[in-house]
Amino acid sequence: MLVPAIKICGISTPETLDAAIAARADYFGLMFYAKSPRFVTLDQAAGLASQAGSRIARVGVFVDPDDAQLRDAITAGRLDAVQLHRVTAARRAEVQARFGLPVWAVLELAEGRDLRALDHYECFDRLIYDAKTPMNALPGGMGIRFDWTLLLNAPHPGPWGLAGGLSPANVAEAVRITGAPLVDVSSGVETAPGIKDPALIAAFCAAARGA
Q1: With a threshold of 0.85, does the pTM exceed it?
Q2: Which class for 138: exposed (0-12), middle (13-18), buried (19 or more C-beta within 10 A)?
Q3: Catalytic residue list
């Protein structure tokens, strides 16, 4: 069975970061979008980055950030990559040129025709497939999943990952159907929006690995 890399997104407390590290997650996401219930301040990000050390990689998650926000967050969180929602290829090139970090992008899917946009994502270092959220809703972290069979035979432009409604109960099935090399979870390991549960984090990582 494929063993995917694991990203726990929206970590905001030392306890849940410890849980992600103990469960051998590969990445944790720091949310820098102020409207999200998982938002972290620069001080919080710095503390979590210090706690993480070299034991787990750090991905900053942003929605249409300007350069000043990126600079401050990259410095505080000691980021290893940035994940951008609602981003163009031109903006990706600017971000990588200015900050020298891998740039991940998110493609929201609801139906097969959404995959027509794949040609625009060839330049990104990783593409995350997520479920399309309702108009005016938060981008991601909504617990919404899409039809995973949409990804069967999809012409992935490069490294990719799967997000959207994943949980300990369904992640093994998601990996089996899609062959996802990375799985990305947020609300699926929470007891309430923004409240991560260490036991659910452990269960998710074990299920993703087929343990």
Answers
A1: yes
A2: middle
A3: 9, 130
